[in-house]
Amino acid sequence: MAAGFSLPSALERTPLAEILLDRIRSEGPIPFSEYMRACLYHPEHGYYARAEARRFADYYTSPDVHPVFGRLVARQLAEMWERLGQPGEFMAVEGGAGAGRLAGHILDFAERELPEFFSALRYAAVESSAARRAMQAETIGRHLGAGRVESRADLPERIPAGCVFSNELLDAMPVDRVVGSAEGLREVFVGERERWFAEVTALPHSPHIADYFARQGVRFAEGQQAEAALEVCDWIQEAGRRLERGFVMTIDYGHEAPELYNARHMRGSLVAYRDHRVSEQFYAAPGLQDLTAHVSFTALDLWGRDAGLERTGLASQTRFLLALGRANEFADVYDEGQTETERMRARLKLKTLIYPEGMGETFQVFIQHKGLAAPVLRGLSEL
Length: 383
Ligand SMILES: C[S@@+](CC[C@H](N)C(=O)[O-])C[C@H]1O[C@@H](n2cnc3c(N)ncnc32)[C@H](O)[C@@H]1O
Known about the structure:
The chain is an alpha/beta fold. The chain has 14 helices and 16 strands. Helices cover 37% and strands 25% of the residues. A hairpin with a 2-residue loop joins β6 (176-181) and β7. α4 packs across α5, α5 (101-113) packs parallel to α7 and α9 packs across α11. The longest helix has 16 residues, at 68-83. The chain starts with 14 loop residues before the first helix and ends in a 13-residue tail after the last strand. Mean pLDDT is 94; it is low at 2-9.
């Protein structure tokens, strides 16, 4: 996700705010994950339940910058297919496929440039929001019509050989919030005061919250805040269980535990996005702003192991894209018949994706594998 710097935004009494305040008045304070789930996924008022009102309204993601992102991901998927011994069917399962832009870039490129891989490719565009699934008719309608792609709400039951991958899916999963105190770990609940949201701390509502941090070796300083991404743990275990042979590739912002829970992140990593502004005003406009938290790659690794996934490696998006693109001097950034000005514009977009001060070092690519021994992948190679 990319957006500008933080400015305070006005509090907005949205219909969802009223629904949540009513609920808190009758049930008492709720875990932050319940609040975040409603803000993002409430069937009527959730941020992701609606179709995108305007493209890039609040932020943009790597596939929005330029198709070269998807083209290089396609090259990585094709290499994974080779590492698996070129099976007759390779399932590319994209979690959180949204409106299908990344899927479109991958499929169009594979069809044109990687025909052998394309003949084995079966694509599942997995998107929980029905409104966003409906938008996929525009981006991948041709491939849906040809039976190459299946658009679905959850992961396929069985993935005999393939790759489950995502771009900015896991950061959008609801998290619980905690704070370190002299008495031990406390959870931050969402309560109500003077007809608006107010945070309340109490003992955690589930033992899994303390386990989440203990398993990652995290020790809290007094006042240190952090997020427990229990749904991410469930998701990686489920992906690992359903995958028989292949890879899980997660592209997202985040860190390994020692960095994510260090002194630089004393306030945690949760932020709100609205109109290209980042803020910590989580209660400003429930349902109208995005909420996201950094991913712990240590948690993905540990919980993935429970389902037979092994760590292949972690690379910044800079290293991943450079490693995949340099083989043909980034020829994939160009389209046929472009003018020199258009080619220059395309190169600038590539820089946004790759440069450390752009999206390159913010985003990481974490790859896990199952059913094959220590595979070497170009996207993880040293530069
Ligand atoms: C931040 S958006 C990213 C969209 C797209 N991957 C991109 O890079 O532009 C996250 C998407 O994941 C979807 N989502 C969230 N949880 C999901 C789940 N458990 N299964 C499938 N999709 C999910 C949301 O509805 C939303 O469309």
